[in-house]
Design brief:
This protein has about 400 residues and is an alpha/beta fold. The protein contains 15 helices and 17 strands. A hairpin with a 4-residue loop joins strand 8 and strand 9. Helix 4 runs parallel beside helix 12.
Length: about 400
């Protein structure tokens, strides 16, 4: 047997991605972490580069990944139970840390129950498998995350059983609801809480109001689902994300421990019936090992910290740094999308200039993400900055200084 023919075919496919501008750049390898010191926030070292970097491309919004309490919890759980669960959940792979984390995140999100997954991506897939049927109609925002799109596909939702509404356009959502065909038993309206490429949020209160007249139209109801992976922990008065920010709730919430909480894993928080259906029907839960006890123990501590005084202080720091950075961008005459979230897009609107700016930041020790055509439409070329709580005022000013000195 040989891979020669397959290798050749795959190489042609990768070359096509490169020609289209959609290929991923080689992965940079982080080799060192330098903790905050004085006016300097954390720094990172990369393989093959003799320079320290500020990360303005990290999802760890509350900067909890290196917190001593999380490290201690992960270490203690590992010493007690080992580094791996040794089985899937229903074959005695459920440890006390998994259950405690599920109870804690359910309480934090104000839901009766929750179920944890290896990631929010697999949580979305598993949820779709659990709540979809042949008579289910799905309606989603056009800018929904890839995991939501894949969730509909893995649940085998036929083309005629789904609709897409224009981004955050509630009137268009109403048109989709009016267009649901006969013979449907239940309707799922699903959307991101924070749209990660833009930093804007779903108008949850308006969505809920738009859905209200339709709640009783179908025998098994209308259900709203928000994936607030980028929102939970990162904004809202107490870090409850988009629901808290908008003063409205979805029926089901999907989230992650891998962003603001700084660990790993995802979850679905909902009713006890939904969570039991997930346990019984979600392939991405049933047929894979769960999070390690280290991840689960550390994640629980992260939720505890977020829900306490230290979490409030970190969130306040995060909002202050975000505000400082957004105001600085405006003062420098650059365009962004307004909002309180620490995802801050810089609208460059030119592919060559965006790539040059990303390189300019790299050469000055700042890691950022550039989004260019065809990943985004022509004219929407963007640099995405992500502010973290451990960024100091001096860090923010330094990044703004690099932007101000850009000659292009």
């Amino acid at each position: 047997m040989t891979l020669e023919r397959l290798d050749a075919a795959l190489l042609r496919e990768v070359e096509a991605l490169e020609a289209e501008g959609r290929a991923k750049a080689p992965e940079r390898v982080i080799t060192g972490y330098l903790p905050p010191e004085g006016e300097r926030g954390p720094r990172y070292r990369l393989r093959g580069v003799d320079r320290e970097f500020i990360r303005m491309n990290s999802n760890s919004y509350l900067s909890l990944s290196n917190h001593p309490a999380l490290i201690e919890a992960a270490d203690r759980a590992t010493r007690d139970f080992g580094v791996g669960p040794g089985a899937v959940r229903f074959i005695d792979g459920t440890f006390v840390h998994h259950v405690e984390l599920e109870e804690r995140i359910a309480a934090f999100m104000g839901r009766p129950a929750a179920r944890i997954f290896n990631s929010a991506y697999t949580a979305n897939l598993g949820l779709a498998l659990a709540i979809s049927s042949k008579q289910t109609f799905w309606i989603g925002d056009e800018l929904n995350h890839n995991s939501i799109i894949r969730a509909m596909r893995i649940a085998a939702v036929p083309r005629e059983n789904k609709a897409i509404f224009r981004h955050n356009d509630v009137d268009d959502l109403k048109q989709c609801l009016e267009g649901v065909p006969e013979g449907i038993d239940r309707v799922i309206v699903i959307f991101d809480g924070i749209f990660s490429m833009r930093g804007d949020n779903a108008p949850l209160a308006a969505i809920d109001a738009a859905c209200a007249p339709y709640r009783d139209r179908w025998p098994e109801g209308l259900v709203t689902v928000v994936d607030d992976s980028h929102g939970i922990g990162a904004y809202g008065a107490t870090g409850r994300g988009t629901e808290e920010h908008t003063g409205a709730r979805a029926d089901i919430v999907v989230g992650t421990f891998g962003k603001a909480f700084g660990v790993n894993g995802g979850f679905v928080a909902a009713s006890e019936a939904v969570v039991e259906a997930i346990r019984q029907k979600a392939d991405t839960y049933i047929y894979t090992n769960p999070l390690s006890v280290a991840d689960a123990a550390a994640a629980k501590v992260a939720v505890d910290l977020t829900d306490g005084e230290e979490g409030r202080e970190r969130l306040a720091n995060l909002l202050d740094r975000t505000r400082r950075f957004r105001e600085g961008i405006t003062e420098l005459g650059w365009e962004s999308i307004p909002g309180p979230h620490p995802v801050v897009p810089l609208l460059v609107r030119d592919t060559a200039r965006t790539r040059a700016l990303v390189r300019y930041f790299f050469d000055d020790g700042v890691l950022v993400v550039g989004l260019t055509f065809p990943v985004v439409p022509k004219g929407d070329e963007t640099i995405r900055f992500q502010v973290n709580a451990a960024h100091t005022p001096a860090d923010i000013d330094r990044v703004l200084g690099v932007l101000e000195s850009f000659p292009g």
